[in-house]
Design brief:
alpha+beta; 20-stranded antiparallel sheet; four-stranded antiparallel sheet; 19 helices; 37% strand; DUF3352 domain-containing protein
Length: 901
C-alpha cells in the first residue's frame, strides 16, 4: 500500500479519535446535573430560587428593603453586582442572565469563627457562555483585579483577586454549571465531593418537594439542624452550646417555602425528626402539640421565651436528680401540658436577665403539696403572701433542672407559686412579685396591641417554640455574644433592632414536624409621614377659666377604665379630664392645694377605683363623681405642711396603709379608717425626707426605708422598730431616693443612691456600706440626682451644671450632654417603655419649657413643650408614638411625639 494512502488512513483515524473525544466531552458537558447534588454535606442552609430578579423586585417594595439595603453584606453585594453590570456589553445584563434561572446558595461554617457562601449557577446556552466569557475579558482589562488559574484534582479553578484588599472570588465549571465562592476552601471541598463520585443531595429526603411552583413562593429553603449549632457557635458564647445542641436535636432537617409580605418573612414547611439516641426528639416523640395558652400570663417585658408542649414533662429528664429518685419521678410526672422558660428584659449587659419558668400541671393542689414536702415546716422567710398568691421558697438546689432536664439550669434557689393551672418558678422573689403584679394589671402578651398580630400569625399550638422580642432582648443578646462578635453587633444595632420579632415553631404532624419561622420587621409605611416630618403635633388643648396649679396626674376613669388626667386650678377645684376626648368626667372643690401624686386604689363596698391624694394637712379619698368617701378626709393638723402621700400594701391584699410625710421630717402611717398605726403617730425624724418612703420585703420581713436630706438613712419594721445597723449616716446631702436590688437575705439586698456631690453609694440591709464611687464633678456647683423610671426597673443619673445637664446610665456611660440658654434649675424625668423606647425629659423651671430626647440623645420634635410642671407620658407601641401631657397657664395639653424608627 502506498505510503501516501497509509498517511491518509492514519490522519482519518486521528480525526475520528479526536472527534469521538470531543463528542464525548461535549456530551458529558451537556449531561444535566442536579445542583443540589453538588452541595457539600456540611451546608447549614441551602436556598433555591428560580427567579432572583422577581424576588428582588418584590423585596424593594416592602418595609424590609430600607433596612436590608443597609446591611454591610448587601452593600458589598450591591457594589459587586453594579461592577458586573458595568462590565457587561450588548443587551445582556446580570438581571437577564438570572431571570427564570434556578440558582442555589449554600452557607457553610469555616472553622469556629467564620461562615461563607457557595453560589451554584447553571450556564446553559451559547449566549450565556458568551456573557460569562465577556465578563472575564472585561474584568482583566480594568486592571483592579488579577486572575490566577490553578489545577486541583483534575479541575481548573480560577481565582479573581482584588489587588488592593486581596478579597477573593474563586470558581470552576462542571457540566455547564458555575460553582462560585469567596472561599477557595469551599470550592475545593465541592471538587472533592465530585471526585468521590457520590453525588447525593443533602436534601435527598425532599426530592419530591418543590414549593417554587406556587406564585407567592420565592425560594425553597433547606436547613440542616446538625450544623446549626456550629453556625450559632460563631456568634454565641461557649456556655450556651449545650442548650443549643439539645434544642437543635429535635429535627434533622427542614424544607421550607419562603414567602414575603410587606414587613414579614415567612418560612413554612416540614421537618424530619432527629432519631439518634439522646436527641430531644427521642425524649418527646409521640407527644402531640399543645395550644400556646401561656400568652395569657407571659409579661410584656419578656425578651426570649422557650415554649414546649408535652404530654408529660418527666420525659425531658436524663436521669433522676439528687432530691430523691422515686419522689422526684412522681413530682416531675405531675406536670403535663405547657412548659415555658421566659427571660425578661435586662436593663444593662452586666447583670443576668431575670427568668421565670411556667409549668402546667394536671392537678395544681396535688403538685403544690408535693413541692411543699421538699421544704417541711415554715421558717421565717420561706413563705410570703402576695395578693391572692402564696410565694414559697424551696432551697433544693437546681430544682427545675432536676424536674425538667438540663436546659432549665440556673436556679440556685427556687421561689414558686400557683397561677391557675400553672406552677411558676423564679430564682428571685422580687421577680415573682413583679410578675404577679404585671399579670394582675393585664400587662401580658395576649393583651398587647403590638404583639397581638404577631401572635396571631404564629402557630397556635406547638411542641417547641422560640420567641424573641429583639428590642427587649438586646442586652441579653449582647451579654450572650462571643466577645469577638460584639463589636460587629453593636455597629449594626440599628439594623438588627428593626427586625423586632422572631419566632420558630415545631408541631408534630404524623411522622414529621410542621415548621414555621417568622421574621418580622417593624412597620414603617403605615406611620403618618406628616407627623414624622413635623416631629411634634399638638393633638388637643383643654382650656380652663383659671390657671392650673398642678402637673397632670395620669389615672383611669373608673366608669370605663379610659385614660384620664387629674389637674387642679387656682380656685382649688380638682378636675378629672378624659385623656382621649378632653371631656370633663368629674370635679371636686377643695380647700387646699394637692401635694404629691394622685393614687388610684380599689376601695369601698363596690371595690371600684377611688382617688387618694394629700393636701397640705389632710388625706382625701373621692369616687368617680368627685364625692368624698365616708370618714374622709383624714385631718392630720392645721399646722402641718405635708409633702406627699405614699401608699403601702405589704402583702398586695388590699390592706392599704396611707403614709404621709411633712416638711419637718414627721412620718404618719394610717389605716383606711384613719387610725394612726403604732409607732407612726408620727415617727419624728431629724430631717426632711429627700424622697418618698419606700417599702421592700426581704426574707418575709417588711422594711420601710426613709432617706433624709441630711444624709441619714433609716430602716424600720412595720411597727416602727429600727433594724440593727440603722440609721446609717452617709455624711453628705441627699436629694435622691434608693434603687433596690433585693436578694435572699438582708446582707444580699443592696440599695444604691447618689449624693448631691456625685458619689454613688451602695449599702445592704445590715447597714454596711459596700461601695462608694465618685463621679466626675466638673464644677463646684455641679449637683447630682438619681432618677428612676416610673416602673422602678432601672435608673439614670442626672448631673446639673450651670446652664448644662448631663445624663448617665447605671453603668456610668454618658447618655446625653446638653447646654441650655438659662441657668435656671432643671428637672429630669426618665420614661422607659421597653427596649429602646426610652424618653428623657428635661424641664427648665425658669422659661417653663420641656425638652424631649430619645434613646440616642436626639431631640424629639422641633420645639420644646411649654409646661409649668413636670409632664406625664404614655406610649402607643402600635403607632410608635408618645403622648405627652402638660399643664401651662390655663390649658391642659396633649402633645403627640412620633418616635424614631
Amino acid at each position: 500500500m502506498p505510503k501516501k494512502t497509509i498517511y491518509w488512513l492514519c490522519g482519518v483515524l486521528v480525526l475520528l479519535a479526536l472527534g469521538f473525544y470531543g463528542f464525548s466531552k461535549w456530551t458529558e458537558a451537556r449531561e444535566k446535573v442536579s445542583l443540589w447534588t453538588l452541595v457539600p454535606d456540611d451546608a447549614v442552609f441551602v436556598v433555591e430560587t428560580n427567579n432572583a430578579p422577581r424576588f428582588l423586585d418584590h423585596l424593594q417594595e416592602t418595609d424590609l428593603w430600607t433596612t436590608v439595603s443597609q446591611m454591610p453584606f448587601v452593600l458589598r453585594l450591591d457594589d459587586q453586582l453594579a461592577l458586573v453590570d458595568s462590565l457587561s456589553t450588548g443587551r445582556s445584563s446580570l438581571r437577564n442572565f438570572l431571570t427564570k434561572k434556578n440558582v442555589l446558595v449554600s452557607m457553610h461554617v469555616l472553622g469556629r469563627s467564620e461562615f461563607e457562601m457557595i453560589y451554584y449557577v447553571p450556564v446553559s446556552t451559547v449566549g450565556q457562555h458568551r456573557y460569562i466569557r465577556t465578563l472575564m475579558e472585561n474584568l482583566r482589562k480594568i486592571g483592579e483585579y488579577r486572575q490566577e488559574s490553578r489545577e486541583y484534582q483534575g479541575f481548573q479553578i480560577t481565582d479573581i483577586i482584588h489587588k488592593s484588599n486581596n478579597s477573593n472570588l474563586s470558581y470552576f465549571s462542571f457540566h455547564n454549571n458555575l460553582i462560585i465562592s469567596p472561599s477557595p476552601v469551599l470550592v475545593e471541598e465541592t471538587i472533592r465531593k465530585i471526585n468521590r463520585g457520590q453525588l447525593e443531595s443533602p436534601a435527598k429526603e425532599y426530592k419530591n418537594t418543590n414549593y417554587l411552583s406556587q406564585n407567592d413562593v420565592y425560594a425553597n429553603v433547606f436547613i440542616n439542624y446538625q450544623h446549626v449549632p456550629d453556625l450559632l457557635g460563631v456568634f454565641l458564647k461557649k456556655d450556651l452550646r449545650d442548650d443549643i445542641n439539645l434544642l437543635s436535636s429535635l429535627c434533622k432537617n427542614s424544607m421550607l417555602e419562603l414567602k414575603l409580605d410587606n414587613n414579614r418573612l415567612f418560612l413554612n414547611g416540614f421537618s424530619h425528626p432527629e432519631t439518634v439516641e439522646g436527641s430531644l426528639y427521642s425524649r418527646i416523640k409521640g407527644h402531640p402539640a399543645k395550644t400556646f395558652n401561656l400568652r395569657e400570663i407571659i409579661p410584656q417585658r419578656a425578651a426570649v421565651v422557650l415554649h414546649m408542649g408535652l404530654n408529660q414533662m418527666s420525659t425531658l429528664r436524663k436521669e433522676p436528680g439528687p432530691v430523691g429518685g422515686s419522689f422526684l419521678d412522681s413530682l416531675s410526672s405531675s406536670f403535663a401540658g405547657e412548659l415555658g422558660l421566659c427571660y425578661l428584659e435586662a436593663y444593662d449587659t452586666k447583670t443576668s436577665a431575670e427568668k421565670i419558668l411556667f409549668a402546667q400541671t394536671t392537678n395544681p393542689l396535688v403538685t403544690q403539696q408535693m413541692l411543699n414536702r421538699l421544704q417541711p415546716g415554715q421558717t421565717a422567710g420561706t413563705q410570703e403572701k402576695h395578693g391572692k398568691n402564696i410565694i414559697r421558697l424551696l432551697t433544693a438546689r437546681e430544682l427545675p433542672q432536676q424536674l425538667f432536664g438540663e436546659i432549665f439550669k440556673g436556679f440556685e434557689q427556687t421561689y414558686y407559686t400557683t397561677l391557675g393551672n400553672y406552677i411558676l418558678f423564679t430564682d428571685d422573689v422580687a421577680t415573682m412579685r413583679s410578675l404577679l403584679t404585671e399579670v394582675e394589671a393585664g400587662k401580658v402578651w395576649s393583651k398587647s396591641a403590638a404583639l397581638e398580630p404577631k401572635l396571631n400569625e404564629s402557630q397556635q399550638e406547638d411542641n417547641l417554640g422560640i420567641f424573641i422580642n429583639t428590642s427587649n432582648a438586646w442586652n441579653l443578646l449582647l451579654r450572650s455574644m462571643n466577645p469577638q462578635k460584639q463589636g460587629s453587633l453593636l455597629s449594626n444595632s440599628s439594623i438588627v433592632k428593626k427586625f423586632n420579632f422572631f419566632s420558630v415553631q415545631f408541631s408534630a404532624k404524623e411522622s414529621q414536624y410542621y415548621t414555621s419561622i417568622i421574621l418580622r420587621h417593624q412597620e414603617e409605611s403605615t406611620v403618618k409621614t406628616v407627623i414624622a416630618r413635623q416631629g411634634i403635633r399638638r393633638e388637643e388643648t383643654f382650656d380652663f377659666k383659671n390657671r392650673l396649679i398642678s402637673p397632670p396626674f395620669l389615672t383611669h376613669y373608673p366608669v370605663d377604665n379610659s385614660e384620664e388626667l387629674v389637674v387642679q386650678d387656682s380656685s382649688l377645684v380638682l378636675y378629672g379630664i378624659g385623656a382621649a376626648q378632653g371631656r370633663r368626667n368629674w370635679t371636686d372643690s377643695l380647700n387646699a392645694r394637692v401635694v404629691g401624686p394622685v393614687h388610684q386604689l380599689p376601695y369601698g363596698g363596690d371595690k371600684r377605683l377611688k382617688y387618694f391624694f394629700a393636701t397640705t394637712n389632710g388625706i382625701h379619698c373621692i369616687d368617680k363623681n368627685g364625692t368624698e368617701q365616708e370618714n374622709f378626709p383624714f385631718s392630720l393638723g392645721d399646722s402641718l405642711r405635708l409633702q406627699r402621700l405614699t401608699v403601702f400594701d405589704y402583702d398586695k391584699t388590699g390592706d392599704y396603709h396611707l403614709v404621709a410625710d411633712d416638711n419637718l421630717g414627721n412620718v404618719f402611717i394610717l389605716d383606711m379608717q384613719g387610725n394612726m398605726l403604732p409607732g407612726w403617730s408620727p415617727m419624728r425624724l431629724d430631717g426632711r425626707l429627700a424622697a418618698p418612703p419606700q417599702h421592700v420585703k426581704v426574707n418575709g420581713r417588711n422594711v420601710l426605708l426613709m432617706v433624709l436630706e441630711n444624709g441619714y438613712v433609716h430602716a424600720f419594721g412595720a411597727q416602727g422598730e429600727p433594724y440593727p445597723g440603722f440609721p446609717i449616716n452617709l455624711n453628705t446631702n441627699l436629694r435622691s431616693g434608693l434603687f433596690p436590688k433585693l436578694g435572699i437575705s438582708f446582707r444580699r439586698s443592696l440599695f444604691t443612691t447618689v449624693t448631691q456631690n456625685g458619689e454613688i453609694i451602695t449599702f445592704d440591709l445590715t447597714g454596711e456600706v459596700t461601695k462608694r464611687e465618685q463621679l466626675l464633678r466638673p464644677d463646684r456647683r455641679s449637683t447630682f440626682k438619681l432618677v428612676p423610671e416610673a416602673g422602678g426597673k432601672s435608673f439614670i443619673i442626672a448631673r446639673s451644671d450651670p446652664g448644662r445637664v448631663a445624663l448617665f446610665g447605671q453603668d456610668g456611660k454618658l447618655l446625653l450632654d446638653r447646654r441650655f440658654v438659662t441657668s435656671s434649675p432643671k428637672e429630669v424625668q426618665y420614661f422607659h417603655f421597653g427596649g429602646d423606647r426610652k424618653l428623657y425629659v428635661i424641664w427648665e423651671t425658669g422659661p417653663r419649657k420641656a425638652y424631649l430626647f430619645d434613646v440616642h440623645a436626639q431631640p424629639l420634635g422641633q420645639d420644646p413643650i411649654n409646661t409649668g410642671f413636670p409632664v406625664e407620658v404614655r406610649f402607643n407601641e402600635v403607632q410608635n408614638q408618645y403622648s405627652v401631657f402638660s399643664t401651662y397657664n390655663k390649658a391642659l395639653k396633649k402633645t403627640i411625639v412620633q418616635g424614631r424608627n
